[in-house]
Amino acid sequence: MNLKDGKYQTGKHIVEELQKFPDENLSKKQVQQFLRINARQTQAVKKLKEELQNLPPLQIPSEGKRILQTDKSDKY
């Protein structure tokens, strides 16, 4: 996650992982192994993969108090 000058951009690792999603027809089991979801959601993931390529940075809408929530994970 990149937060700079009041704008948020998706972390590069998220886009990189979506790029690993194969475009060819997959078995239900392969999709579940990769994304841990069922095959009906494969089209949604493909569309998300396309949309994230040109996603503009989000802006923080106000000048007021901000709350940043995180988890305890050290993965990223």
Structural overview:
This protein has 76 residues and is α+β, with helices and mostly antiparallel strands. The protein has a domain at 2-53. It has 3 helices and 3 strands, in the order E-E-H-H-H-E. It has helices spanning 12-19, 28-35, 42-51, and strands spanning 2-4, 7-9, 58-59. A 3-stranded antiparallel sheet has the order 1-2-3, with no helix packed on it. It is elongated. The model has no long low-confidence stretch (mean pLDDT 76).
- Distance N to C terminus: 9 Å
For the secondary structure, the number of strands is 3
- Order of SSEs: EEHHHE
Helix content: 25-40%
| Strand portion | 5-15%
Low-confidence stretches: none
Largest sheet, if any? 3 strands, antiparallel
- On the 0 to 100 scale, the average pLDDT is 76
Helical element count?
Answer: 3
Going by helix content, strand content and strand pairing, the class is alpha+beta
Q: Looking at the structure, what is the overall shape? A: elongated
Strand order of the largest sheet: 1-2-3
- Computed over alpha carbons, the radius of gyration is 16 Å
Describe the secondary-structure layout:
Elements: E1 2-4, E2 7-9, H1 12-19, H2 28-35, H3 42-51, E3 58-59
Antiparallel strand pairs: 1-2, 2-3
Quick structural overview:
With 76 residues, the chain is α+β, with helices and mostly antiparallel strands. It has a domain at 2-53.
Give the key terms.
76 residues, alpha+beta, three-stranded antiparallel β-sheet, 3 helices, 3 strands, 34% helix, 11% strand, elongated
